Amino acid sequence: MAWLRVRELVRKEFIQLFRDKRNRPILFIVPFIQLLMFGYILTTDVRTIAVGFLDQSRTIESRMLYDALNANSTFDVTYVAGDAAALEEMLLRRKIDLAVKVGPDFSERIRRGETAPVQILADGTRSHMSSVMIAYTTVAIEQLNRKLLLELHPFSLAYGRIDARIRPWYNPNLYSRNFFVPGIVAFLIMILSLLFTSMAIVKEREIGTMEQLIVTPIRPVELLMGKTIPFAIISIAQMSVVTAFGVVWFDVPIAGSIPLLFFATCLFLLSTLAIGLFISSISATQQQAMMTTFFVSLPFFMLSGFVFPIANMPKAIQWLTYLNPARYFLVIIRGIFLKGVDIHVLWPQCVALAALGFVLFAGAVRRFRKRLD
After folding, report:
1. Along the 373 residues of the chain, how does pLDDT read in single tens digits?
2. CB-based burial label for 12 (10 Å; 0-12, 13-18, 19+)
């Protein structure tokens, strides 16, 4: 391999890339906008629950339930309904997140020592958020149950209890942003590297410079190296800046090794750049290459474990995820950011990324031919 030819081709790619003014916003501005947007949007934290309350009992006990919900900083009782139809209408129009109905015999049942049902209605179209809101409501009602039990039976019960002392590791406050931001960084790098690399070769065909490359003595592997090295350098630079921005702006901890993060990023880029080259070699136009890139990016996103746990997927799909480089890189980047683990823990993912990268790059080199057809 003649590295002089590769070096000159890399220099040509940089000149051609930065000469086009339309590429500059995509390279330098878009990653920050996307990180800011997705960093604030992608969250599963439930901070405020708008509650509608229907009190058909109008007693001290029902008022205690109202106060127990309203005193909690998570709940905000924004609507007190006069009848069930009005309450359900507010839930239907999404004016409230949760509806609480207290029956007319609520107080009598409690005073008789019976179970007093309280109906809780949640919008099931938002399944995850609804399950979290119902869990919060159940905790608030359980606290009220203990308070009413002490009032009705004011004597001490001495018995052995199980004391669960819960301590979440790696993300003590359970902020979902700490989970999502590292994944956002990974996918920004993946999409940008795929997008630019997928148009690298087909662009030469469209602007008519492929004929000049064909008559040169440069070999196919040298041509592909010259096409990928600039985007690898740009992707690593973007990784550095976007990671620093995410750590400073979103206060996401990074507890692991920075050199290991860059090493794993290089292994990941080997796969994404190879896939981009393969797309570029089979595409006839830049538009076709762009559409194919977005078609490939969506399965990568869905099958990576970024949002949806791989363990919840069907077994056949779980086996398919082993061919997804993003699956391994997400484990690495989250392990480095949150857990601070080193290569002794992450070596299986690094080996898998290296194997996939070399196989994909070898396939891209084999598929590429220095010809117009």
Report:
1. 677 777 777 887 787 777 777 777 777 787 878 888 887 777 777 778 888 999 888 888 888 888 888 887 888 888 888 888 888 888 888 888 889 998 888 888 887 777 888 888 888 877 777 888 888 888 888 888 877 777 766 666 566 667 777 788 888 777 888 888 888 888 888 888 888 888 877 777 777 676 676 667 777 777 778 888 888 888 888 888 888 888 888 888 888 889 999 999 999 998 898 888 888 878 778 888 888 888 888 888 888 888 788 888 898 999 999 999 999 999 999 999 988 888 999 999 999 999 998 998 888 877 766 554 5
2. middle
Strand order across the beta sheet in which 98-102 lies: 75-81, 49-55, 98-102, 118-122
Residue 35's identity, in one-letter code, is: L
Nearest CA-CA partner of 104 in 120, 85, 90, 83: 83
Chain-centroid distance of CA 56 in Å reads 43
Global pTM reads 0.79
Structure tokens at 30: 């878009």
CA dist., res. 98 & res. 89, Å (int):
12
**Burial status of residue 354 (CB atoms within 10 A of its CB: 0-12, 13-18, 19 or more):** middle
**How far is residue 232's CA from residue 277's CA, in Å, rounded to a whole number?**
12
Bridge-based pairing of strands 49-55 and 118-122 is unpaired
Cα separation, 340 vs 338, in Å, equals 6
